[in-house]
Amino acid sequence: MAGTERLENVNPHIFAKAGERLASPTDWDDSVYDPFDSREIFDLIRNIRDPEHPLTLEELNVVEENQCEVSDAENFVMVHFTPTIPHCSMASLIGLSIRLKLLHALPARFKVDVRISPGTHASEHAINKQLNDKERVAAALENSHLLEVINKCLNPR
Questions:
Q1: Quick one: 151 exposed, middle or buried, by C-beta within 10 A (0-12, 13-18, 19+)?
Q2: pTM (2 decimals)?
Q3: Which CATH number applies to 35-154: 3.30.70.100, 3.30.300.130, 3.60.10.10, 3.30.70.1120?
Q4: Confidence of residue 62 (pLDDT cuts 50, 70, 90)
């Protein structure tokens, strides 16, 4: 963030990162069907950068493995995320970053649902509605400034 902008959460609590996922011998065998699981979804989004801080969503405890649900058989992924403060103005941006990362990383067969964890944000209902409306998401991604900020969140520094 530029020096003239004010941080909402000046001193966020920083959490320990989960260990790296250990590969099994069948992970590299293309002849074995390996369904997507919650850890795989978490691994895709854990290193997204927070828009306000030089920290990942995992380090801020915004995303956790137990907040990722996946049904490989039903082609469905649901991610709940928890903003660091109840009035976080960056919640929509964080949700869009998660959605965009999953839409780019997962096969097109998956329906992706991104939601704020129940009871953790003052505008939870409105933001959830926005994040899961294809037309609203498409319109938001047409905004070049917003897309630039999202790309900074998605690309490691």
A1: exposed
A2: 0.82
A3: 3.30.300.130
A4: very high
